[in-house]
């Protein structure tokens, strides 16, 4: 990893660029006049072309060149941005991905077809209203008739030359733009003794007189812009050559010009920020997480030793290390968290494509994008979510005319939202379509033998049938969904993340699918308890209270295991019996009351040891049949404690309650 | 498992090689051998954590370098009785692909002997009849000295034990 393969680095970067381009294009479909987005897309294409050629992706570079040219014309105002153009570039951008993946594949026919498409989009729409468009979108260019004076200050990062940037080349390019006075700023040059001859210590102050617009000056720096400090200011506007009547327009333009440097500075700082990010392979994070976990364990042993020793110095060091390792663990946890925005963003494209494919008008609304989830969760949820969104659009939303007939807006809505409650993140996919047709679900399930004909099912059970393997209600198999695979896979994936799926659906009003996923897969705050000889961890988020099991309750409950807790009866489970420890109960047993939402259950344990925060280790596949535990953790003495699966225990308790009620 | 499938397993373990490098160990007086390439480490006995409700075959877990791994007793797959631990008892940690996922598993042994090579010429597929054990749990038998060394088919053992339905119907 010290010498990363440049090709793979380029691929990663190119993939990111393509994502930026795509998101820019999708933004453009909303507001075609958005200059920033047009510029962003152009810059992305330009960089992709440049670095593609540099790394030997000739086909990609050549193909991208045409798209860049098209966007350059848009940027200069020769051609208006149209939906056709954006779509053409979107599909061209997919092709770029293919060129990136298999640079040696046979792509010529595809390239030609797409370019043809692109040219039609550019030329077909370009000519009719060029002048008005130019005025509307780009008053700056319109005004750029006269000679203007720009003051450009820039400095390059010290290692720029090592990365292949030649400042003389940049200066030459600026000279080409017009009359140029260049002053080198030598104030930052260090003493000779400390001078690094390979670094750049100069800054430049350039006064440039040119007729060219600002964007041309920016283009000079296009390859180095991300890392450098650049300031472009218009010094003085030449007396307008245009008539007085135009004054208001000119004034407006001046205002935007003055604002421009500020915007530019903001952009610079944003770019600088993104340049500070470091890409780290996920498995290294996992490794580090393991190390931190081991460190925490070793540290708690140290604390134990220090506690018994009389040495004050040792104690203070141990406390210091305890604090540091705690902080390290917290930092580590945050490292793994990512906003769900990265998950949601990919759906914009999906919805855009599906909308075209199905002829349905769809609006995608995303909420709670800043909610943070463990990276693993994000990675694993991507495919299930795609499937759910596709299902909503394909099965849920109606055709526009059908919607209008039902008294709804022609445009169907799909709402993708995320929010955090306690230790869980809830991701919902909601549509305002026709809802799930219960009759059809039932008929289908009966036909495929999933349920007995005429079986009585609760509404929720009936809806859950769609997660059965081999179930599909689509009458016609479409490209999108309805192949009878998927929903069961969705359910499996979510369950593998220790999550659950709920469906609600109202006929004619739409359906909501809610995924509840634990916030992190890695760390748990738990209550450590002892049952017999073994230690177990109960997730603290589920613990409501702890109390002593009184002798009367213990004796009276031989027949019915209930305790009364502030006027309500709570069923309880004796973990000693559940785990068949074969030991005698402690004289003072404790009850830990746990809950999931409204349902509560008490767990009788021998001893409550205390709270305990540690790294969750998943159980191996060989133990997947053991449902009582959701994982394991390593204690201070190096032994393993199992983590209780609260949902399962509560269900078991409720079941027991139901049985007891039925019995009498 | 059909005769043909067993043949494939047999070929899979030997491949093109004439010699197989293995670690041999004892279980209830029988000598077993597992491929040296899957062995990660040999451990002294560690504190174990019993998993209530699990199958006896994998009844506990251990802490292996900060990872929680299951401890399996393959004696039970061969219908042998569990024996008392002695000072010779060791845990052999192996890495096995289960559903394309590398899984670490500890195996209890009575005694670990040596790393050695077994020649292909001395090996034979398990007989389909006349054995106390399930034939599909055995990759091959290798004759050495006066005894047979059993090369267990770890994939078959752990895959069938992992099934939720538990015991696959035994052949014969």
Automatic annotation (TrEMBL), chain A:
Keywords: ATP-binding, Chemotaxis, Kinase, Nucleotide-binding, Phosphoprotein, Transferase, Two-component regulatory system
Gene3D superfamilies found in the cross-reference section: Histidine kinase CheA-like, homodimeric domain, Histidine kinase-like ATPase, C-terminal domain, HPT domain, SH3 Domains
GO CC annotations, alphabetized: cytoplasm
Domain of life where this protein originates: Bacteria
Gene Ontology BP annotations: chemotaxis
InterPro entries, alphabetized: Bact_Chemotaxis_CheA, CheA-like_dim, CheA-like_homodim_sf, CheW-like_dom_sf, CheW-lke_dom, HATPase_C_sf, HATPase_dom, His_kinase_dom
Positions of modified residues (Phosphohistidine): 46
Domain CheW-like, residue spans: 523-655
Domain Histidine kinase: residue ranges: 273-521
Role description: Involved in the transmission of sensory signals from the chemoreceptors to the flagellar motors. CheA is autophosphorylated; it can transfer its phosphate group to either CheB or CheY.
PANTHER family reported for this sequence: CHEMOTAXIS PROTEIN CHEA (PTHR43395:SF10), SENSOR HISTIDINE KINASE CHEA (PTHR43395)
Name of the protein in question: Chemotaxis protein CheA
Biological source species: Shinella kummerowiae
Lineage: Bacteria, Pseudomonadati, Pseudomonadota, Alphaproteobacteria, Hyphomicrobiales
UniProtKB/TrEMBL annotation, chain B:
Gene3D superfamilies: CheA-289, Domain 4 (2.40.50.180), SH3 Domains (2.30.30.40)
InterPro entries the UniProt entry points to: CheW (IPR039315), CheW-like_dom_sf (IPR036061), CheW-lke_dom (IPR002545)
A Pfam short name: CheW
Domain CheW-like positions: 19-163
PROSITE patterns linked to this entry: CHEW
Gene Ontology annotations of biological process type: chemotaxis; signal transduction
GO cellular component: cytosol
Name recorded for this polypeptide: Chemotaxis protein CheW
Organism for this UniProt entry: Shinella kummerowiae
């Amino acid at each position: 990893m010290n010498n990363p393969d440049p090709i793979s680095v380029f691929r990663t970067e190119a993939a990111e660029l393509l994502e930026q381009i795509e998101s820019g294009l999708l933004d453009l479909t909303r507001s075609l006049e958005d200059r920033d987005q047009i510029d962003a897309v152009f810059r992305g294409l330009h960089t992709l072309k440049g670095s593609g050629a540099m790394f030997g992706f000739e086909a990609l570079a050549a193909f991208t060149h045409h798209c860049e040219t098209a966007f350059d014309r848009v940027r200069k105002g020769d051609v208006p941005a149209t939906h056709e153009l954006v779509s053409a570039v979107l599909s061209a951008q997919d092709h770029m991905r293919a060129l990136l993946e298999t640079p040696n594949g046979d792509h010529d026919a595809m390239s030609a077809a797409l370019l043809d498409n692109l040219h039609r989009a550019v030329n077909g729409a370009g000519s009719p209203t060029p002048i008005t468009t130019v005025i509307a979108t780009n008053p700056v260019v319109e005004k750029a008739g006269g000679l203007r004076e720009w003051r450009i200050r820039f400095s390059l990062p010290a290692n720029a030359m090592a990365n292949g940037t030649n400042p003389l080349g940049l200066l030459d390019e600026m000279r080409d733009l017009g009359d140029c006075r260049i002053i080198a700023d030598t104030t930052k040059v260090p003493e000779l003794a400390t001078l690094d001859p390979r670094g750049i210590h100069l800054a430049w102050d350039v006064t440039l007189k040119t007729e060219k617009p600002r964007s041309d000056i920016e283009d000079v720096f296009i390859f180095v812009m991300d890392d450098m400090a650049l300031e472009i200011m218009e010094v003085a506007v030449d007396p307008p050559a245009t008539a007085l009547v135009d004054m208001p327009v000119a004034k407006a333009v001046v205002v935007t010009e003055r604002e421009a440097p500020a915007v530019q500075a903001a952009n610079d700082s944003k770019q600088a920020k993104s340049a500070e990010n470091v890409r780290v392979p996920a498995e290294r994070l996992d490794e580090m997480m393991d190390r931190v976990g081991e460190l925490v364990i070793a540290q708690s042993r140290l604390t134990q030793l220090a506690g018994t020793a009389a040495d004050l110095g040792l104690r203070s060091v141990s406390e210091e290390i305890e604090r540091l390792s705690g902080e390290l663990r917290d930092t580590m946890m945050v490292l793994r968290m990512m906003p769900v925005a990265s998950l949601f963003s990919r759906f914009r494209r999906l919805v855009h494509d599906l909308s075209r494919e199905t002829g349905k008008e769809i609006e995608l609304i995303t909420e709670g994008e800043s909610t943070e989830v463990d990276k693993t969760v994000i990675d694993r949820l991507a495919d299930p979510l795609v499937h759910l969104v596709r299902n909503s659009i394909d099965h849920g939303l109606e055709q526009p005319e059908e919607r209008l007939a039902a008294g709804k807006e022609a445009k169907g809505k799909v709402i993708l939202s995320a929010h955090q409650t306690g230790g869980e993140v809830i991701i919902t996919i909601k549509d305002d379509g026709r809802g799930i047709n219960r009759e059809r679900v039932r008929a289908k399930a009966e036909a495929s033998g999933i349920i007995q004909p005429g079986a009585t099912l609760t509404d929720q059970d009936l809806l859950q049938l769609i997660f059965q393997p081999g179930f599909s209600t689509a009458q016609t198999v479409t490209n999108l969904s309805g192949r009878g695979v998927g929903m069961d896979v969705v359910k499996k994936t979510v369950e593998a993340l220790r999550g659950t799926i709920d469906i609600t659906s109202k006929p004619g009003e739409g359906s909501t699918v809610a995924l509840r996923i634990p916030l992190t897969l890695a760390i748990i705050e738990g209550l450590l308890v002892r049952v017999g000889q073994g230690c177990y961890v109960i997730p603290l988020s589920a613990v409501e209270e702890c109390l002593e099991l009184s002798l009367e309750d213990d004796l009276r409950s031989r027949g019915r295991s209930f305790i009364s807790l502030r006027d309500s009866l709570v069923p309880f489970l004796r973990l000693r019996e559940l785990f068949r420890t074969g030991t005698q109960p402690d004289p003072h047993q404790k009850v830990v009351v746990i809950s999931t939402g409204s349902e509560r259950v008490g767990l009788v344990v021998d001893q409550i040891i205390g709270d305990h925060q540690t790294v969750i280790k998943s159980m191996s596949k060989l133990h997947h049949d053991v449902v009582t535990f959701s994982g394991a953790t390593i204690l201070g003495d190096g032994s393993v404690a199992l983590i209780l699966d609260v949902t399962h225990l509560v269900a078991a308790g409720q079941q027991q309650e139901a049985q007891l009620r039925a019995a009498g | 498992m059909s005769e043909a499938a067993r043949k494939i397993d047999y070929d899979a373990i030997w491949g093109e090689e004439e010699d197989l490098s293995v670690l041999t160990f004892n279980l209830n007086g029988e000598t077993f051998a597992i491929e040296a390439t899957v062995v990660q480490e040999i451990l002294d006995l560690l504190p174990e954590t019993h998993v209530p409700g699990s199958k006896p075959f994998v009844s506990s877990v251990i802490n292996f370098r900060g990872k929680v791994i299951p401890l399996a007793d393959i004696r039970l797959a061969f219908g042998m009785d569990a024996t008392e631990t002695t000072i010779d008892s060791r845990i052999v940690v192996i890495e096995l692909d289960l559903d394309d996922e590398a899984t670490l598993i500890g195996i209890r042994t009575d005694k670990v002997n040596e790393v050695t090579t077994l020649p292909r010429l001395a090996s034979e597929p398990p007989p389909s009849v006349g054995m106390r054990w399930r034939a599909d749990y055995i990759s091959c038998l290798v004759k050495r000295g006066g005894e047979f060394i059993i090369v267990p088919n770890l994939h078959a053992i752990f895959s069938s034990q992992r099934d939720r339905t538990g015991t696959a119907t035994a052949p014969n």
